[in-house]
Amino acid sequence: MVSRDRSTPTRGPGTWRKQTTCCGPAQRAAGHLVEVGRGAGAPRREGSLVVNQTPTPRPDVLDRAHDARALFDVLVAQGVRGEPATRAQALAVLGTPDEDLLDLVAAAGRVRRQWFGRRVRLNYLVNLKSGLCPEDCTYCSQRLGSTAQVLKYSWLSTEDAVAAARAGIAGGARRVCLVASGRGPSDRDLTRVTAMVGGIKTEHADVEVCACLGLLREGQAERLAAAGADAYNHNLNTSEATYADICTTHEYADRVETVERARGAGLSPCSGLIAGMGESDEDLVDVALALRALGADSVPVNFLVPFEGTPLAGTWDLTPQRCLRILAMVRFVCPTAELRLAAGREVHLRSLQPLALEIASSIFLGDYLTSEGQAAQADLDLLAGGGFVVEGADGDGRAAAVPGEPTTTAVARGAGATSGETGVTVRRRGPGTSVAPNA
Ligand code: SF4
């Protein structure tokens, strides 16, 4: 029964009060309501049923959405021409409200598809030398003074490094990243790494090899290039203005110099950032613009994994939505760069990883340097579910998605140990252990 109270509304449109005139006591006890001064679009109640009507548009929301779409249209037009976002535009992207987040992802996705289509490149990390670093980068579990219970070992043999790379390549990786802790390589270290590069290239000439060995001195990038390395990674990590807050043993300028040395030697410059260290929006935009200015071909975006035993332990500042905004900002600032979802994607993006892949074009397969990633099969399921194309895979490269087949997208843990209450799983498999790698 619906009964409209014709008396003067006292509580505004769309409000309700108990029926007082035509229901019996039982109905009143059941809480039957009558509508008082309903406005257009408010729900209508019929007996115990609430009937939804078309909601009233909110002009403030429409205006904001209109402004946001106008900005996104400009960013897409620039991005498909390979033109970077301005500083003001990049800051506006980071300020996008949650209500407009899917429009932002769609816009960044249009730029991504312009340059990379639906393809995803898989990268594989081989940690050649773990822990015991003399540098003091606050975010790093391998830093001087770190009490994080990470694996610590000296240089892998060439055979072990090539075997680890082989496992990643068999899993679908098309770039292998050879990483060593430390301030930078000695010439003897470089001799080891050039042998590893040669060993991998002999077996897999079509697979890219990227070295990441810290600060390079004069002539070292040339040696890597001569050995067949394709790229060199050295992240800027954060803005110049805040670099001293995250490291005191070397400077931002040292990192810039190494990226320039790598590029000067003909190596593809790979350099990225870490988000979630307490930086401001301005810092994130500054580092993205600096990466663009340096000509970084590939840009890893890391989300802080705050290990227990490091100064940033317990720093969980990121939300999945914030991560998407950061990725979109980097995509618009560096529209043609290979944008890589790097460390922390599983724990920070969580169920929004598929949306992140609409923006990024590359991920690490398997584990990270000192923490475990989700199971390699879960990564492949993720790509299949999103309809992405794995670069270099057989056939058309499309990961096989079987309708209705259950997937394993939950993080599958290896033998790793959870670090305190953080949920970070310390790597206990792959290089430096006797346990099979996650690939
Ligand atoms: S980021 Fe590199 S240089 Fe810094 S502490 Fe970690 S391993 Fe050492």
TrEMBL record:
Domain of life: Bacteria
A Pfam family this chain is assigned to: Radical_SAM
Start and end residues of each Radical SAM core domain: 115-342
UniProt biased composition (Low complexity): 409-420
Chain's role: Catalyzes the conversion of dethiobiotin (DTB) to biotin by the insertion of a sulfur atom into dethiobiotin via a radical-based mechanism.
Xref: InterPro entries: Aldolase_TIM, BATS_dom, Biotin_synth/BioAB, Elp3/MiaA/NifB-like_rSAM, rSAM, rSAM_sf
Keyword entries, A-Z: 2Fe-2S, 4Fe-4S, Biotin biosynthesis, Iron, Iron-sulfur, Metal-binding, S-adenosyl-L-methionine, Transferase
Protein family (similarity comment): Belongs to the radical SAM superfamily. Biotin synthase family.
Cofactor(s) this protein cannot do without: [4Fe-4S] cluster; [2Fe-2S] cluster
Pathway: Cofactor biosynthesis; biotin biosynthesis; biotin from 7,8-diaminononanoate: step 2/2
Subunit architecture: Homodimer.
Amino-acid positions noted as binding [4Fe-4S] cluster in the UniProt annotation, renumbered to this chain: C133, C137, C140
A GO biological-process term: biotin biosynthetic process
SMART domains (UniProt xref): BATS, Elp3
One function term, GO molecular function aspect: 4 iron, 4 sulfur cluster binding
Documented EC number(s): 2.8.1.6
Name of the protein: Biotin synthase
Region (Disordered), start-end ranges: 1-22, 409-439
SUPFAM superfamilies for this protein: Radical SAM enzymes (SSF102114)
Reactions this protein catalyses: (4R,5S)-dethiobiotin + (sulfur carrier)-SH + 2 reduced [2Fe-2S]-[ferredoxin] + 2 S-adenosyl-L-methionine = (sulfur carrier)-H + biotin + 2 5'-deoxyadenosine + 2 L-methionine + 2 oxidized [2Fe-2S]-[ferredoxin]
Binding annotation for [2Fe-2S] cluster: C177, C210, C270, R340
NCBIfam families: bioB
Record carries keyword Iron: yes
UniProt enzyme class: transferase
